[in-house]
Amino acid sequence: MFLQTQVGTGKGRTSFRLFSLLCLIAVLSLVVIPFFPSLVIRDTETNRPIWSGRIEENGTFSIRWTHSIHRTPVVETYLIRDGHILLSEMSFQDYGIGMESELAPGEKLISQDGQFRVINMNRAFPALHLFIGQVRANHTLLFAGREIPLASVDRPGAAVTIQVEKRSILNEIGGY
Questions:
Q1: pTM for the full model?
Q2: What pLDDT shows up at residue 14?
């Protein structure tokens, strides 16, 4: 008598396939679902991300630019809190046209080491919108110990939006 057996069928094979499918779905979900807060710069016209860097809650970054009249540097320091961008401090050399003229409650203006500093600021923004300077502004992002001229990520004169977004592993390893 000839015995015939079927290989790879039955309850064990079905369980293995179901387990494999669930593992694949879990891994794909981890790769695609946004988990990581990142500072993202987008070209406002196309909404295309042009730069991103991971940033933690209570992380900071700054934007340095040259004042068009005084021709001196201005540094705005921002803090990330609850997915919002908070202007926390501003420093500049010359007090005059185009600079802060009123302080909000709790803010202080101090003079230190030849600089004016507005401290204890708590001004929240869902996003920052700016035009990259074409002549002398030289907008520069100060992020994680690096200086990133905004003219190197988009053309001078371009409108950009800076915001905090949750990014996925796929976004992180695949670029923008």
A1: 0.77
A2: 82
